[in-house]
Amino acid sequence: MPRESASARAERTQSICKRLAAAYPDAHCELDFTTPLELLVATILSAQCTDKRVNVVTKELFSVCKTAADYVALPLEQLEDLVKTTGFFRSKAKNIKACCAALVEKHGGEVPADMDALTALAGVGRKTANVVLGNVFGINEGVVVDTHVARLSTRLGLTREKTPENIEQDLIRLIPRKDWALFSHWLIWHGRRRCGARKPECAACEIADLCPRTGV
DNA sequence: CTCCCGATAT
DNA sequence: ATATCAGGAG
Length: 216
Prior knowledge:
The chain is 58% helix and 0% strand. It is mostly helical and 216 residues long.
């Protein structure tokens, strides 16, 4: 089996984007939020947890905490109890408090629109920072690589890298910057609806002919 | 690399 | 019973 050329892969990627854009015309962030701080907190909570569960938890959490100072003032034990069902609850509660303390002390209580400032916050890595930058500030500094984007990028033969950081570099080279934000949403939606980790529905897949598993 | 960890689908 | 879920820190 001949190795796909870089130009052929770029062209196939374009076709994949076009097809997924048609399949998911309203793809968007499925975490519920109304402010930058709400998306930041929701994304911290979304680690190894479904967005559906996060949205159940944040509905009550956001009614209790409106500002970064509110999270700082809330006793750790109460915050742990509010986020318990998202898993990793002790780490997440601790991180959210430390994160919000830093927001109050270093950023006037606001969420910084800056990659370095964001990733310096407790519980905020590159993936979470990319989510916040893209979805509330319209800044495409990188590509969001979560578990779905990583899995589908590998299955689709868009990367051979293993770490999220290295996969992101491959995707940045492969995809036009204007599509970065949508690309992640398309792959996440497709990963949830069609190309699940345990049960990929290749027979019904909209891009089966563009995938090394079933087509090409 | 390991650890953090509850809810859900299979 | 086990894999997986919009990961990050030590």
